[in-house]
Write a structure and sequence with these properties.
This protein has eight helices and seven strands, in the order βαβαβαβαβαβααβα. By secondary structure, the chain is of the alpha/beta class. The longest helix is centred in the middle third of the chain and has 18 residues.
Length: 228
């Protein structure tokens, strides 16, 4: 475990991820101090597999959406007084081996928020995912006044002080854009670290066109009406 990594808590929102969550949790347990999985009303053995792999597990009785599960995970993580919180998906699209790079950027460059970026690997990205992400990133860059290379990436690391200052409200995928809008409004130092591009669309619940439209509408709301 590298310097500072023991003070990092990893949070994974998970919905019906029994096939993948164990393979994500096990290496994370060797990289950070705690791993918290929030099973978002999963109908399978997600919670049991995550717990067997070494995670602390919070089970929500019904599916509330990624944002709700992530907010609950952040609440649980911050209660333990960590220095930083890492956010990953449990569906196999985020490689735990990339996390030390985000931790180094946070520790050495003193970023408040580090985003794992994938757009450098255009050849390995499905066209719909690449273009919706690219356009969304351009829009969020304009809205925040910051250069955001991969606004839809859920692979992130936040300093605990910043995480505690973000009044997040979104229940769905829009939470990632809400986080960027509110972090930028608070003057957060935002950095980017390249990560592997892994698209497991068979296990992902993200619908590129529909969910990107929803995210865009929600982003306008958070920017105009709820940039608290």
């Amino acid at each position: 475990m590298g310097s500072g990594a023991s003070q990092v808590v990893a949070v994974l929102p998970a919905f019906d991820c029994e096939r993948t969550v164990g393979a994500v949790v096990r290496p994370l347990c060797a990289l950070v101090g705690r791993v918290i999985v929030v099973s978002d009303g999963s109908r399978d053995a997600t919670a049991e597999v995550a717990r067997a792999a070494g995670a602390e597990v919070e089970r929500l009785p019904e599916n509330r959406g990624k944002g709700f599960a992530l907010r609950r995970g952040l609440e649980l993580a911050l209660a333990g007084g960590p220095a930083a919180v890492a956010l990953l998906d449990a569906d196999g699209q985020h490689d735990p081996a990339d996390l030390p790079g985000l931790i180094r950027a946070w520790r050495d460059e003193r970023f408040d928020l580090v985003i794992g970026t994938r757009l450098q690997d255009r050849e390995t990205s499905p066209p719909a995912r690449f273009w919706t992400n690219y356009i969304g990133s351009r829009v969020l860059s304009w809205m925040t006044g910051r250069e955001l290379l991969d606004s839809q990436s859920g692979y992130r690391l936040l300093s605990a002080p910043l995480a505690a200052r973000l009044p997040l409200r979104a229940d769905g995928y829009a939470i990632e854009s809400e986080m960027l809008i509110k972090a930028a409004a608070r003057g957060a130092r935002i950095g980017h670290v390249p990560i592997r591009t892994i698209y497991n669309d068979g296990g992902s619940h993200f619908q590129p066109l529909l969910d990107t439209f929803r995210i865009s509408c929600a982003s306008v709301y958070f920017k105009v009406f709820d940039e608290a």
